[in-house]
Amino acid sequence: MMQRYVIFGTLVAVLLAGCASAPPLPHTLNVDPQIRLPAAHGAGQDRRGRFREVFCAVLDARKDVLPDHRACDLALTRLAPEPPGTGAGVELGTVQRKLTLLFVPGVGWDCFADWLAMEDTIPRHLGQFGFDMRTVPIDGLGSSASNATRIRDSVLGMPRDDPGPDLVLMGYSKGAVDIQVALERHPEIHHRVAAVVSLAGVIGGSPLAEEMGEDELDMLQHFPGARCAPVDGGVINDIRPATRRAWLDSHPLPPGIAYYSLITVPAPGQVSRLLRSSYRTLALTDANNDSQVILVDQYLPGSALLGFLNADHWAVAVPIARTHGMVGTLLVNRNAYPREALYEALMRLIAEDVRQADTRLAR
């Protein structure tokens, strides 16, 4: 079993880490995200005040029943100026409008899935309140064009209980890019999609991809128990900054869908040991990064900004430490994050927005 840990650490370090040759630029909370974030194809709303209200309420209500609890101010990074909350109450019971969360993972997900031995704690938790959650079976080593077809098939194959849009597509890391391509290539799915969420999305690409080749990424198929294989050789190009900038310039978001961004920007002490080298490499450009993507490159242009999560790139979606204690202690030692509470808060805010939109349409 120790051999697996060594292989895991070696592969990920080679693929994701760089060597910093100069002191990193300082991490700071004194930035205005509305100035720093791109405004292509229309500016989005700053919804951080309301999301903080919802997330804090969920964290407080579930602190005795959910793992990895944190105080709200430790779960969310407050980048000034953050707008105040609305003062409205937060519904914590069963929702009336059923929504299904379709989770679209990132690079190499099926390479690690068996080893991760992920439990369905988030779907079970969301199910208590009327939400459903499923994972789209993407090709972890496939291009966004390839995975766009898989997303389309998953959307069209979902059962339907409500005549209105009932699906929330959440893309993690490259999964957010795959969703953008799916919406552009397959307009036949638009009528099912109520919302799209970018979670630590590689929306503007990652500078780390500039130094990588597809042959390096293909090493992931040799991870013990991997169920992935190279598909079409387009993964790295899909997440290069130049590719992503060109895409954003020529592909506005389809109308009629609500868009949201959740951005990971950890305090330096919240970056796992295995990710610190790549964090320092990106810090040469901007210390506000999550070890894989810079803050500004995670924002989906035109979306509602929900919050800055005090977590590194893996902590919000890859629960390594829960199932692999030794790896969690030695290498991925900042992996604990209240993911169940985060996903519940996200779905509650979206359900609130959908309910208000339904009310406006009914008038």
Q: In the residues, how many domains can be counted? A: 1
Low-confidence region ranges: 1-26, 29-35, 38-42
What's the multimeric state? single chain
Give the percentage of residues in beta strands. 5-15%
Using only C-alpha atoms, the radius of gyration works out to: 19 Å
SSE order, as H and E? Answer: HHHHEEHHEHEHEHHHEHEHHH
Assign an overall shape.
globular
What's the name of the CATH homologous superfamily?
Alpha/Beta hydrolase fold, catalytic domain
Largest sheet geometry: 7 strands, mixed
Averaged pLDDT, please?
86
- What structural class is derived from the secondary structure elements? alpha/beta
CATH topology: Rossmann fold
Largest sheet strand order? 1-7-6-5-4-2-3
Helix tally equals: 15
Second-tier CATH architecture: 3-Layer(aba) Sandwich
* Strand runs, count: 7
Q: What is the highest CATH level, the class? A: Alpha Beta
Fraction of residues in helix: 25-40%
Instruction: Please give the alpha-carbon distance between the first and last residues.
Output: 61 Å
What does this structure look like?
The chain is an alpha/beta fold. It has a single domain, classed as Rossmann fold, CATH 3.40.50. Helices cover 38% and strands 10% of the residues. The chain has 15 helices and 7 strands. Helix 6 packs parallel to helix 15 and helix 7 packs across helix 8.
